């Protein structure tokens, strides 16, 4: 008798942990990803800012899963699903399935203004990280070049040394604080004609506070720490335009020095242009098109609305997990206390991991013909956001704190969840060196 075929699309947190949890199960698994590697996104900003290199936060899916005999890995981009014939469509082939797990994550959302992506790159993939690092380093190089020429105008140099981040969620805050420290420490003594420490880091957020999904007290602490690092924070400010010349921002409450327009030549604050050569996007995200592939109901972010067992309505054989799924579930905190109300799963790694494991367990029960587990529930371990080298904020739900202890927990958690012993070891060594020397290792510009 042939084994039931489980096809997993996406080898990110959700897909990879589902695949691992199916090890030894009486099924044959095919994991399909358009990239041949698993990427540990939480540390991607460290690649974008030259602390780590790409291979330290990623690993080939094929080698991660090489010991699982019931799993095949396929490099390919899925373009659709035929739910009648039960096949996944790739460019050249159709792959049949009995169970399908969709774990295709998200992409950056430029709110219908895709042309902004050319000017203000977002941080999702390794190539984004390389592009951003090159953009930032090149800005310093050009500023040095201009400053070395006697005819250079101060305004052109200021423009090159101004870095704008749109969006003050976890990624925007991480990037802003790291860029600030990079310019004040790692690059401080590398240039003879410019003062890298004078780089201006501007952070814009539509919501009234940074880290809007965190408790107010932690947002306030994060903002204070950002300001100590000399990051200029503009909250309640919506960016409404980005073009080759910059961006436009319109806040509901516009403080006197709030920016109202930004372009590749700079930004305009209160009608006065503030030059900025580098604009980085860390605002909204949109789910992958997986919902369209299966013609299923989605929320306004394009996430597939799933049942309490993470199956897709009318398709008990299809599951959606992680960032591409709209999952509402009860949670328990670290003390085991159950939430009063079910909550929408946040777009972070833990729900994706736990959902992947849950669906694998459900499939095992279904294949064995035994009573499946109850609805998915989330073990909510809380949230951690880093704000600079040794400062973080931690919301463990029953306990909130900030500073070095929060950073220590952040570091331990991130090392623990990195895939592979070698990656853990090298990242620890790099962090140690960066801590001691205050320098960034990866500063070579691509040709
Ligand atoms: C810069 C950044 C920083 C973050 N920091 C944190 C953090 O500190 N802590 C935290 O918990 N979370 C963080 N997150 C969020 C976290 O990374 C995501 O919530 C998590 O990766 C979701 O897992 P997933 O499996 O749903 O999707 P992903 O991990 O995004 O994986 C999706 C996979 O699907 C593949 N794929 C997509 N489309 C196709 C297709 N058509 N065909 C084949 N394959 C396809 C992709 O190549 C990818 O491998 C961060 C995210 C980003 C972008």
Description:
The chain is 31% helix and 27% strand. The protein has a six-stranded mixed β-sheet, with helices on one face. Strands 14, 15, 16, 17 and 18 form a five-stranded mixed β-sheet that branches. Strand 22 and strand 23 form a beta hairpin. Flavin-adenine dinucleotide binds at residues 9-15, 32-35, 41-42, 44-45, 77-78, 103-105, 123-124, 170-171, 288, 322-324, 347-350, 352.
List keywords for this structure.
6-stranded mixed β-sheet, 31 strands, binds flavin-adenine dinucleotide, 447 residues, alpha/beta
- DSSP strand tally: 31
Distance between the termini: 55 Å
The secondary structure category is alpha/beta
What would you call the shape? globular
Strand count, sense and barrel status of the largest sheet are: 6 strands, mixed
Strand share of the residues?
A: 25-35%
As residue ranges, the low-confidence spans are 251-259
- Give me the side-by-side strand order of the main sheet: 5-2-1-9-23-22
Please give the share of residues in helix: 25-40%
Bound chemical compounds: flavin-adenine dinucleotide
pLDDT averaged residue by residue:
88
**Gyration radius, rounded:** 23 Å
């Amino acid at each position: 008798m042939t084994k039931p075929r489980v096809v997993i699309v996406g080898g990110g947190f959700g897909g990879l942990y589902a695949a691992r949890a199916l090890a030894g199960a009486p099924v044959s698994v095919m994991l399909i990803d358009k990239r041949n590697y698993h990427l540990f996104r939480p540390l991607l900003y460290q690649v974008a800012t030259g602390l780590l290199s790409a291979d330290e936060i990623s690993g080939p899916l094929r080698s991660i899963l090489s010991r699982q005999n019931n799993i095949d890995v396929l490099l390919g981009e899925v373009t659709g699903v035929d739910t009648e014939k039960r096949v996944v469509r790739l460019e050249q082939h159709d792959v049949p399935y009995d169970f399908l797990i969709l774990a295709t994550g998200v992409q950056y959302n430029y709110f219908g203004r895709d042309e902004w992506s050319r000017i203000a790159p977002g941080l999702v993939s390794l190539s984004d990280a390389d592009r951003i690092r090159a953009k930032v380093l090149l800005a310093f190089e050009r500023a040095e070049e201009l400053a070395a020429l006697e005819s250079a105008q101060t305004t052109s140099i200021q423009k090159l040394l101004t870095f704008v981040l749109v969006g003050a969620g976890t990624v925007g805050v991480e990037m802003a604080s790291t860029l600030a420290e990079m310019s004040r420490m790692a690059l401080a003594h590398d240039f003879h004609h410019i003062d890298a420490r004078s780089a201006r880091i501007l952070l814009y957020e539509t919501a009234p506070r940074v880290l809007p999904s965190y408790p107010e007290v932690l947002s306030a602490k994060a903002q204070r720490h950002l300001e100590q690092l000399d990051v200029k924070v503009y909250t309640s400010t919506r960016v409404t335009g980005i073009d080759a010349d910059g961006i436009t921002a319109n806040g509901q409450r516009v403080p006197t020095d709030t920016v109202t327009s930004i372009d590749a030549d700079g930004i305009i604050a209160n009608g006065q242009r503030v030059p900025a050569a580098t604009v980085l996007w860390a605002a909204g995200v949109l789910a992958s098109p997986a919902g369209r592939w299966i013609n299923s109901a989605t929320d306004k972010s394009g996430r597939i609305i799933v049942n309490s067992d993470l199956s897709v309505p009318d398709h008990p054989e299809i599951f959606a997990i992680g960032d591409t799924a709209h999952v509402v579930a009860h949670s328990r905190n670290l003390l085991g206390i159950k939430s009063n109300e079910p909550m929408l799963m946040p777009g972070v790694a833990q729900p994706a991991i736990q959902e992947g494991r849950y669906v694998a367990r459900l499939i095992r029960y279904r294949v064995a013909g035994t009573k499946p587990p109850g609805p998915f529930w989330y073990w909510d371990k809380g949230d951690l956001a880093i704000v600079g080298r040794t400062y973080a904020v931690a919301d463990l739900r029953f306990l909130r704190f900030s500073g070095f202890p929060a950073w220590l927990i952040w570091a331990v958690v991130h090392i623990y969840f990195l895939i592979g012993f070698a990656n853990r070891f090298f990242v620890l060594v790099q962090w140690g060196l960066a801590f001691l020397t205050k320098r960034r290792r990866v500063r070579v510009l691509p040709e």
